[in-house]
Model the fold of this input.
Amino acid sequence: MTEGTFITVLLSSDTFWSTSVVWGLVACALVLIASVLVMNLSRVWKRKRRLGSTEGAAAAVDVALTFPLFFAVTMLAVQFAVLAADALVVHYAAYSAARSARVVKDPYLCGSLKDYIDDFRSGLTAKLFQKPAGCEDSDERIDRAARLALIAAAPATTLSTLNTPSQTLKDLARLMAVSGGETGNAQDLRYQQLLQKITYAFHPGNLELIIDEPDFARLARMQDEKSIFARSEAARAKVTFYTYVWAPGAYLLIPGASPRPGYNFIQKPITAEVSLI
Done:
């Protein structure tokens, strides 16, 4: 399956239209509002310079009142744009999980996460295609496929309530940092950022994953067991990822965003559902 398949699956997902598309439109609307506020600020500032002290003082008050609103709208627009981008990543994670559940022989995801890292570190890419043909599906493998995709949506910031990363996760972060081409301090900085993102993505409390059979496959089997849909290895993945909300006070205006028990930061659950036949 190619990335073109992902686009097709994405466009057919109801959750894509209700999350990424809606939040993207909200971000665009907020950008328009911010643009209107900027033009108003510019007009008021020019009037302040043109008028005398009394009228100029009134214009300065207008600027002082408008600028905080402009700043808040801008920050909220950026936050909704980030949420829209994160929703795309969560849908790709659901796609990766469904693909892993559907495809029985997937040499890239067979074995443990440590095996995955060791294979790429050794540079023997061909070794991945020499895995035993009997590599079976497992919950761990499907979960790992989703979490590897979710690294892109995880925050690159220190969150003290997360677990200390294991040595395997540190090795994965180092592998990704080295493959980026940076050297010296730039590579170390990249490593620290990736380690924070990987720690967040692999934290047990930040992901809920359900794998089941799509409704159309179940109904097809009930009606006709010889149907192509009844005989296909169809899989549906539902992923809920608790993304990080960084904009101050934004959770008050974002439905579903709130502090989670045991965490010292705000999270917003993003749900994606993808079906593959």
